[in-house]
């Protein structure tokens, strides 16, 4: 894919350095804190404006990805894109397509890969995405100002310029920058966007769960929801967790490789063996969840209606490779979801019943909802 550069497909010292650098930089730019909260709230306004323009049923999935993408773009490039921007639209659609193709047989059995059309198409897509990212990075490099730091790319470029130790020069180079940017853009867009789209689909399918709105009206009213409201919104919180559990967006997490011979639960696994952590096995575990195959927010509520954490809730995976954007993603899911539900009720298009809304996913590298349309009906 990218010869081990960047974060997702990197290993060893380079991965360690890039992961550490990315986490520190994301935190400096407010991941999980006030700064990203402000960015997300600003984006909520654009999202609501966009939803309001649709007087009839529409497919919200690509719009949700635009919103999610603008958050990670803001952190990386210091700017958001207009939803009408053709280049931005193409970037997201290409990303969608690449992630879909990445789940196909050609990728899961890579030795067949080069002979298959899907593989060639995907690599073609990756090349165009790289070129777009190169253009954005080049523009940022040209306008780099040591006194104004716009985002991740500026921090990386400044570090590249100022490196003194040979050992660091090994890691801070253009290929690592390019691939980290592509990884963050891809990881930060599709996952969050699709989860939000699943959330709205569940709302339309199970109108009784729009009890979310009753809780929002009672606790928050019409003012802007803030992250700190979450602790007073146990039902909303449970619905978001249940959405993540049931939508099972990354069923196989990301392909890894054992770095040494190991015996795990009595099985010997040789160094270099490909390992796929099957998140489905824990998110749908019959011994952990009362009704593993149905949407049931009570999985995250006690008898008094308080929110309860569950150990088997692992949509971000676990361990050293756990999702690096978890804090940001959780904040986005909460603020986008609540801001939309404060203003809109989601229903199937006229003539279609709730039962007819299809929950079968489109299977790619991620599980996304089958293309569908919903009405966003203004509540006030
Ligand atoms: C609902 C949203 C999200 C979900 C469900 C999710 C889930 C995951 C999962 C399951 C992994 C693989 C962990 C493993 O390999 O075992 C992962 C990795 C990763 N995620 Fe996320 N993610 C989300 C949002 C984000 C966001 C917003 C970002 C951007 C900051 C992000 C950045 C990454 C990166 C860079 C990795 C690779 C980490 C590494 O290999 O060290 N993710 N994510």
UniProtKB/TrEMBL annotation:
<dbReference type="InterPro" id="IPR001128">
    <property type="entry name" value="Cyt_P450"/>
</dbReference>
<dbReference type="InterPro" id="IPR050182">
    <property type="entry name" value="Cytochrome_P450_fam2"/>
</dbReference>
<feature type="binding site" description="axial binding residue">
    <location>
        <position position="323"/>
    </location>
    <ligand>
        <name>heme</name>
    </ligand>
</feature>
<dbReference type="InterPro" id="IPR017972">
    <property type="entry name" value="Cyt_P450_CS"/>
</dbReference>
<dbReference type="GO" id="GO:0005737">
    <property type="term" value="C:cytoplasm"/>
</dbReference>
<dbReference type="InterPro" id="IPR036396">
    <property type="entry name" value="Cyt_P450_sf"/>
</dbReference>
<dbReference type="GO" id="GO:0005506">
    <property type="term" value="F:iron ion binding"/>
</dbReference>
<dbReference type="GO" id="GO:0016712">
    <property type="term" value="F:oxidoreductase activity, acting on paired donors, with incorporation or reduction of molecular oxygen, reduced flavin or flavoprotein as one donor, and incorporation of one atom of oxygen"/>
</dbReference>
<dbReference type="InterPro" id="IPR002401">
    <property type="entry name" value="Cyt_P450_E_grp-I"/>
</dbReference>
<keyword id="KW-0560">Oxidoreductase</keyword>
<dbReference type="GO" id="GO:0006805">
    <property type="term" value="P:xenobiotic metabolic process"/>
</dbReference>
<keyword id="KW-0503">Monooxygenase</keyword>
<keyword id="KW-0479">Metal-binding</keyword>
<dbReference type="Pfam" id="PF00067">
    <property type="entry name" value="p450"/>
</dbReference>
<comment type="similarity">
    <text>Belongs to the cytochrome P450 family.</text>
</comment>
<dbReference type="GO" id="GO:0006082">
    <property type="term" value="P:organic acid metabolic process"/>
</dbReference>
<keyword id="KW-0349">Heme</keyword>
<protein>
    <submittedName>
        <fullName>Cytochrome P450 2K1-like</fullName>
    </submittedName>
</protein>
<keyword id="KW-0408">Iron</keyword>
<dbReference type="GO" id="GO:0020037">
    <property type="term" value="F:heme binding"/>
</dbReference>
């Amino acid at each position: 894919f990218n010869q081990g550069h960047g974060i997702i497909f990197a290993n060893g010292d380079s991965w360690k350095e890039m992961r550490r650098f990315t986490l520190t930089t994301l935190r400096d730019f407010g991941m999980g804190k006030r700064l990203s909260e402000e960015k997300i709230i600003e984006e909520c306004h654009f999202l609501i404006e966009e939803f309001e323009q649709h007087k009839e049923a529409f497919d919200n999935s690509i719009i949700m990805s635009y919103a999610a993408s603008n958050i990670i773009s803001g952190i990386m490039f210091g700017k958001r894109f207009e939803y009408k921007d053709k280049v931005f639209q193409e970037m997201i659609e290409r990303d969608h397509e690449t992630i879909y193709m990445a789940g196909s047989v050609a990728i899961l059995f890579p030795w067949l890969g080069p002979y298959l059309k899907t593989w060639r198409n995907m690599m073609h897509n990756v090349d165009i995405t790289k070129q777009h990212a190169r253009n954005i990075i080049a523009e940022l490099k040209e306008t780099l100002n040591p006194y104004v730091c716009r985002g991740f790319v500026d921090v990386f470029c400044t570090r590249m310029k100022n490196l003194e130790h040979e050992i660091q020069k090994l890691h801070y180079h253009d290929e690592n920058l390019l691939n980290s940017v592509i990884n963050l853009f891809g990881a930060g867009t599709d996952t969050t966007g699709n989860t939000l789209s699943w959330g709205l689909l569940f709302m339309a399918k199970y109108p009784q769960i729009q009890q979310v709105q009753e809780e929002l009206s009672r606790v928050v009213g019409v003012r802007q929801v803030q992250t700190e409201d979450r602790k007073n919104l146990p039902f909303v919180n449970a619905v978001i967790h249940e959405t993540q559990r049931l939508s099972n967006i990354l069923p196989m997490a990301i392909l890894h490789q054992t770095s040494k011979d190991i015996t795990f639960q009595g099985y010997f696994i040789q160094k270099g063996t490909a390992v796929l952590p099957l998140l489905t096995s824990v998110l749908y575990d019959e011994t952990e969840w009362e009704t593993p195959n149905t949407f049931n927010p009570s999985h995250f509520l006690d008898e008094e209606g308080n929110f309860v954490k569950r150990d088997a809730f692992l949509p971000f995976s676990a361990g050293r490779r756990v999702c690096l954007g978890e804090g940001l993603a959780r904040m986005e899911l909460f603020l986008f979801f609540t801001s939309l539900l404060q203003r809109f009720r989601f229903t199937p298009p006229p003539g279609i019943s709730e039962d007819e809304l299809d929950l079968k996913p489109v299977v790619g590298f991620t599980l996304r909802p089958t293309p569908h349309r919903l009405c966003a009906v203004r509540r006030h």
